[in-house]
Amino acid sequence: MSPRRRFPKLPAAVLAALAVSGIAAAQQSYPTFRVAVFGDANLGYSTRAHSTELELGELDPYAQVRFSEDWSAIAEALFQRIERGSSADQPGKHSVELDLERLFVSWSRSDALKLQVGEVNSGIVEWNEREQAPRFLQTPVDVPSMALRPEQGGAWPLHLVGAWASGNVPGTAGLRYGAGIGAGRGRSREDVTLTGAASPAALASLSFSPAAVTGWTIGGAALFDRIPAPEGTYREIDETLSTSFVRGPLELRGEWGRMEHRLSSETHVTTGWYALLSWRLAGSLESLRPFLLVDRLDVAGGEPYLAGIADQRAWSAGVRWDASPHLVLKVDYQSQRARAAEEERRARLQVAVAF
Amino acid sequence: MPRRIIAVLLLAGAARAAAPPPKDELVFVAGTARPPAAISSSDLRRIYLGRTTRWPDGRRIVLAVRPAATAAGRIFYDRVAGMSEIDFSRLWLGVLFRGDAETAPRVIRDAADVRRFLDRTPDGLAFLLSSELDPRDSARRPLHIDGRDPGTAGYPYLAPVP
């Protein structure tokens, strides 16, 4: 009988491929260069409209250069299919856009302090901080609404152009901090730039991963911004709280966020949260991870700056299959309800790749 | 007299048969640049999950892991990483994508190759079963974990009895 190929060899192959040099290599020599690409595509069937839709999702290439033990740089781009003007007043327009996701120089001499200068993640939404853009890296099909990028209909500011400092504080509390300052949102939600109508923004985050409870992390972040919108200058104050418990086969994640925009005497409040539960199966089914995601977003009504962002009431249940080191397939069933809209139910297949 | 000798031999044989097999443990060994050190199991986990990337003197830690198909790898994923090998690989894709670490852990199957890795990587960190340590190599000392030496009571990474 020929030996059956076992899946656990595959992740080992991923790590082996990721490791730049082999056993024979001693210490690292510089500079080093790494390029990788993530991509995904989605097929959905609506049980309400009885229609099938194929979406070419995102193509997310990134490159990292290490100049020395202390200095490095990262550039990440994102090709994505954008649907604009799909609200009632304007027919949908589809286009493929190229966005610069991250471009920064990083310096670090110890785990206690890392400095990044350039376009970085704002860190206000933990999902965005941890999973970044690639669908390959996340368990479910969907990105929770509060972690969507502005150009995809997200409300929270996910990028900052400026300086970001972060690090670990030694000790059993597993304390991790982050602080950033720079240009936040511009005249529209999608503008994050140092030129033109830039806004001063500052962010602070703190999280704990106590040694006494292996796998548990809890944290929070706050962001302050002044948005130079056409209708006036908003004062923005965002707060998020997040927690996760990842141990053994179990993955539990949750996050809550509140975004306050003040414009003269008006205050607009947007809130959102999500909860994710997933479980790695055992034995011959180890490559499967069933999941359940609950997603909610309540957008401040009547706020021009957030116009076009819909509320979200959704849950999805499905399974992720790690088919190979480079290929992941996910299937799910999603129930979605937006403001003043009929409930949408969809069965979906997502194919995500990593090279 | 011969009867007494036979009885002693029988007793010795019985005692040997009743003795428990030597305990095997997962031991962590650092590269040649590192003196024997103490570390907590939670700090060890942070290192292998990419949250701690440097030794106390600031040098980057170069990690090696064994596949889950090996006995050492099985204990590692179960007791240290606390996740499957699949999830460990996915986690490290994210660590590299964020730029948190320089390289992913190197996957090394054989104990002899692990020893070679440690010889050639002064800032390396890898693991072996205690039975895979070369007894002639007294210079290679396992890390003390949670204040315990391998072989002493309370050491956290005892191999399960097959």
**What is the CATH architecture annotation of chain B?**
3-Layer(aba) Sandwich
Total beta strands of chain A: 16
Question: Which parts of chain A are unreliable, with pLDDT below 50 for 5 consecutive residues or more?
Answer: 1-8, 20-25, 84-91
Category from helices, strands and their pairing of chain A: mainly beta
How much helicity do the residues of chain A have?
Answer: under 10%
Question: How is the biggest beta sheet of chain A arranged?
Answer: 16 strands, antiparallel, barrel
Number of helices of chain A: 2
Mean pLDDT of chain A: 85
The pair of chains with the biggest contact is:
A-B, 59 and 46 residues
Shape of chain B: globular
- Mean pLDDT of chain B, as a whole number? 84
Strand % of chain A is over 45%
Helical content of chain B stands at 25-40%
Number of domains of chain B: 1
Fourth-tier CATH superfamily name of chain B: Periplasmic binding protein-like II
Strand order of the largest sheet of chain B: 1-5-3-4
Strand order of the largest sheet of chain A: 1-2-3-4-5-6-7-8-9-10-11-12-13-14-15-16
Question: Please, what is the oligomeric state?
Answer: heterodimer
Q: Could you explain how this protein is built, in words?
A:
The complex is a heterodimer of chains A (355) and B (162). Chain A has helices at 9-18, 126-131; strands at residues 32-46, 51-66, 71-84, 93-110, 113-121, 159-169, 175-183, 200-208, 216-229, 232-247, 250-263, 266-279, 288-298, 312-324, 327-337, 344-354. Chain A is mainly beta and 355 residues long. In chain A, strand 14 (312-324) and strand 15 form a beta hairpin. The two termini of chain A are 33 Å apart. The model of chain A is unreliable at 1-8, 20-25 and 84-91 (pLDDT under 50). Chain B is of the alpha/beta class and 162 residues long. Chain B has one domain: D-Maltodextrin-Binding Protein, domain 2, CATH 3.40.190.10. In chain B, strands 1-5-3-4 form a four-stranded mixed beta sheet. A two-stranded parallel sheet of chain B has the order 2-6. Chain B is globular. The mean pLDDT of chain B is 84. Chains A and B meet through helix 1, strand 1, strand 2 and strand 4 of A and helix 2, helix 4, strand 4 and helix 5 of B.
